Every structure is written in structure tokens, then in C-alpha cells.
Amino acid sequence: RILRDWIEIQIINDYIDEVSDNSIILLDGNLHGRYTHLLNIPENNRQNEEGSLIENISLMEQSLDLILAMQTLYKSCEDRKITLVGVSKFSRTQNFTNALKRKKGYGSSSPDLLDVDVLYRWKEKSTGQTTPLVLGVPKGVQKRGLNRLDRIKNRLREKERSEDTTRRIQAIENYAYAPAIIMYHMIASEYRQPLRVDILASCLGRT
Q: Which helix (H) or strand (E) holds 34?
């Protein structure tokens, strides 16, 4: 999945010069999840279903390549006033649901519910969109996440020095400075699956 996402983003970067200023780029899939995937990769190696060893440093390197490609795309869009929009037909995120739970006073022990499940069951006969949320780099980055990123950076420094390693370390150092994402869900017609929409906040004059 990480490699597929990297290919999609890199194709846009390769052809960004052919996109006019003040245009709109539509991307299949959400923006925020791609950028934060690195934080969900276990730090220790593990075995897959066939018993083969999965070296997580390799997954981390792939994820950092994706982050670097996204950082490049974000900068191009901001400089040229290109609106970057990611649309997901199905998202396993819980950002909207967690915001509702916090507003209602429910703690972290309350049931985990996917945004699309809640919206589909609650608003199955309705159309419209949810109130947009501003998603930044998770708070975990500011606490345990920063320590995790430092550990990844130290593991990279233990490897033989190369241009790729230098670029990946730079991606980590710039990680927390990514622009925020404006996220909302929309239901186009009755009984339809809610769509998740991510928009780069800098495209809307926000950071």
C-alpha cells in the first residue's frame, strides 16, 4: 500500500509543471492518513502469515519516501495556489466520530466507531456534509511521537550514509511542519456511502 501511494504522489510531482496555477488536483484517497502512516508502523520486526521476517526499517523507509513526496507536493501546491483535494470512497478513520464523542463528554474507553459507519446509519436518508474539521499532525507527535521519530532517525544514521538516507532524515526533521488538512464527509444522495474529503489547508489560506 505504501509503495502504491508513493507512486500515485510521485506521478503528480513528475507532471506538476503541466498543471496550471490556481488549478485543482483531485487525488483518490485521503491526504492525512497517507502522511501519518509512519506513526502506525511497529518499531520491532515481525513475521508475516507465511513466516517470513518483515524488516520494519524497510517499511519505515518506504513511508519516509512517501512523506518526502507529499512534502514536495504540498510545497508546489502552496507556491502555485493549486488546490489539492483527496476523496475517499471508504475511510477507516475515526476523526469525526472522536470529535462527536469528545463534544458529548465520552471518554477514550467508549466504543470505537468508524466515521462512515456512524454517518451511514445515522444519516442514511439524508444528504449534505459534516462540519469541517482541521487535522494537524497528531498530538502523539508532540509527545511520544517525537521520541519515536528520533529513534527512527537514529536507526537510519546507523546505516551506510547515502543520498536516500539523508533525504529521509530531512523528511523526519520537517515532519511536524506539514500544513493542516481540512476534512469533512459528504453524502451526495440518500442511502449512499459517505465520501471523505481532505483539502490542503494552505490552499484555503490556512496553515
A: helix 32-36
